[in-house]
Amino acid sequence: MAELLRVNNLVTQFKTESGLVKAVDGISYYIDEQEIIGLVGESGCGKSVSQLSVMQLISAPGEIAGGEVIFEGQNLLNYHANGPEMRSIRGAKIAMIFQEPMTSLNPVLTLGRQLTEMLQLHLKMNDDAARKRAVELMSMVGIPSAESRIDDYPHHFSGGMRQRIMIAMSLSCNPKIIIADEPTTSLDVTTQAQLMELMKDMVERFHTSLVIVTHNLGVVARYAQRIYIMYAGRIVESGTIKDIFGTPRHPYTIGLLKCIPRLDEEEGTKLVPINGLPPNLINMPSTCAFLPRCSYRLDKCSREPWPPMTAIDGNHYIRCYADTKEK
Amino acid sequence: MTERNTTVDEFQEAPPRINEWRRFWRVFLQRKIVIFGLVVLFLLVFSAIFADLIVPYDPYIGVMADSLESPNSTYWLGTDIQGRDTLSRLIFGTRTALMVGFITVGIAGIAGVTLGLMAGYFGGIISMVIMRIMDALMCFPMLILAMLFAAVLGGGIQNVIIALSIATVPGYARVMNGLTMSIRENDYIMAERAMGSSNARIMLSHILPNSLPPMIVLVTLQLGMIIMSEAALSFLGIGIKPPGAAWGAMVADGYRYLTYTPALSFAPGIAIMLVVFAFNMVGDGLRDALDPRLRGIL
After folding, report:
1. Chain B environment of A194 (Cβ under 8 Å)
2. Which candidate from A106, A142, A145 shows the least CB-CB separation from B6?
3. Owning domain of residue A314
4. In angstroms, rounded to a whole number, what is the distance separating the alpha carbons of residues B151 and B255?
5. What is the CATH number of the domain that holds B131?
6. Which of A15, A211, A215, B228 has the fewest Cβ atoms within 10 angstroms?
C-alpha cells in the first residue's frame, strides 16, 4: 500500500511561565493507505498534541516549532493554520474524532444541521442531498430510525450514540485519514467494543486509514496493524502488533505490558507496576527520559544522549541502548 | 457475537419526538406573570402603532379652559397645564418610548455583540483594543454618559437614540466577550475547527446561537432599562423636545402640580413601571423557554 501521510521530526512546544514545554519532541511516523495504526502512551506524553499538530489545531501558547507533515506530496505545515488550503484538508481529507462525545457536539444545533454542515461546506451539496446523505450516514453507524432522529438535539442521545454521530460526521466527506483521539475512553466497556468494531467496519468500507490514539493497549491490540509507543513527547518503540506484543524491546513497552493482566499467565502472578512518575517536560535532559524509571539501565545511558530510533529487525524500531532481549 | 452487532437494540424504540415549538410555548406561558407581561406589551405595541386612531383628543393642542383637570368622565386621566388630555399624551408617549427602546437596543445590541464576539474569539491585540475602549466607556455611569452625549448632540428623539446606544454598547460587548471566551473553549468548537470551518462560520453559526439565551435576557432587560433612561433624559429636559410626548417629560411637567392633580405625574410614572416590569417578566419567560440546557427539565 502506498504511503499516505508521513510526519518527520515534528516538534510542538508550549511556552509557559516556568519554561519551554516540548510536548512533542521530534516524532516521526507514517501511515499507509487503508492502514490502522495505534499511537499509545500515558496521559501527557504528547500523543493528542502530536495529532492536533498534524491538523494545525494548536493554539497559543503552543506552537509547532519544527518538522514536516507530508500529505499527498505537500507539507501541511507550509499552509497557514487557518488558511483555505488547511481548511479544505480538515474534515474533507483528514477527519478527527474526539475523546468526549458528550461535549463534542454543539448542544444548540440539531444533529442534522451538524451532519449536513460538513457536506455542504466541503462537498457543496444542496440542502436536500445533504440531508439524505446525513440520514444514510446515521443509519450506517447504527442509529435506528435515523429519518426521524435527524432533527434531534445532542442531549437526546447517549454518549455511545453521540460518538456514533461523531464517527458519521468524520466519515461524511469520505476522508483519507481519520484520527481518533481516545475515541472510546469516556465510554463503558461494552460500548467501547461496539464502537471499535463499528470504526473498523467503517474504515474498511470507506477505504480510510485510521490513527487510534489511546492509552489502552488492549484497544489497539485488536484493531491496529502497527503501533507507536510514545513516552515524554517521543516515540520510543514502533513495530507491528506482533513485534510489540510478542517481542517488546523497549523497557517502557515491557513495563506497560507487565501492567496488564493476561489470561495465559499462572494464577497468583502479580502485576508489576512501573515505578516512579513520568518526567516533567520542562527543561528535559538530553539523556533518556525513561532513565529514572528504567530497570535495564546501563552506565552508558546516563552519560550519552538518548539514541535515535534504531531498527532491530524489519519494521521494529526502538530508542534504547540496553539489551532487553535476555530478561 | 452480540458485541459485533453495531445497532443498539435498546434504542430501537425512540422516545416520541417533542415538538420544539409546542414545548417553547408551553414553557414560555407556564407562568401567569409572563402572560401578564405579554398582555401589557401587546397593548403597548398596539397603542403605539394605532396611536393616531385610538387617542380621544389631540395630544399636542389642548383646550386651555380645561387645564389641570383631575380625572373625570371627559378626560379619563385629567389634563395638563395646557389643557392637553393626559391619556392621549400617554398613548403617544408609548410610541416614543417603544421606538427609542427597540431602535436603541437594536443598534447597541448588534454593535456590542459584534465587538464582543470578535474580542472574545480572536483575543490578543484585537481583544485588548476593543475591550479597553469598552472599559473606558464603562467608567462612566450609563446615564451620565447618555446625558453627556445628549447634551452635546442636543435633544430630539434621534440624538437620544444615539446617546443611549453609545452608552449601552459596552454592556453587550462585555457580556458577549465573556460568553464567547467560555464557549470558544468547548470541545465542539475544536471539533468544528477540525472539520475545516472558517472563523466566521464558527462565530456565526456556533458561538452566536450558544450565546443567545443570556443575550435575549439581557436585551429584554435592557429594553426596560432604555425606556427608563429615555424617561430620565426627558425628565431632565435633555431628551425628547416639547411638544413631543414623552413619559419622562410628562412626569417632569406634572410634578409641579403633584398635590393638585397627582394623576398628571402618576399616570406616566406607572406606565414606565409597567413597561419595565413587563419586559423583565417576558425576558425571564423567554430564558426559561429558550435555554437548551433547561430542555427536559422544564
Report:
1. 3-6, 8
2. A142
3. 234-318
4. 23
5. 1.10.3720.10
6. A15
Question: Using an 8 Å Cβ cutoff, are B265 and B254 in contact?
Answer: yes
- pTM exceeding the 0.95 threshold for the entire prediction: no
What is d(CA B95, CA B90) in angstroms, rounded to the nearest whole number? 9
Q: Do B7 and A144 touch (CB under 8 A)?
A: yes
Same domain, A241 and A185: no
Compute the nearest-CA separation of A318 from chain B (Å). 32
**Any A CB within 8 A of B31 CB:** no
Domain carrying residue B177: 29-54+80-293
Residues A167 and A243 in one domain: no
Q: What is the ipTM of this complex?
A: 0.83
Question: In Å, how far is A263's CA from the nearest CA of chain B?
Answer: 20
Q: Are A46 and A52 in contact (CB under 8 A)?
A: no
pLDDT tens string for chain A (327 positions)?
688 999 999 999 998 888 888 889 889 999 999 999 999 988 888 888 999 999 998 887 888 988 899 998 889 888 988 888 899 899 889 999 988 888 889 888 889 999 998 899 888 889 899 999 999 999 988 888 888 888 888 888 888 888 999 999 998 888 999 999 888 887 888 888 888 899 999 889 999 999 999 988 888 888 899 999 999 888 999 999 988 888 888 889 888 888 888 787 777 778 888 888 888 888 778 888 888 888 888 888 888 888 888 888 888 998 888 877 654
Whether B231 maps to a domain, the answer reads: yes
Q: How far is B155 from chain A (nearest CA, A)?
A: 43
> Is A201 close to B187, i.e. CB distance below 8 A?
no
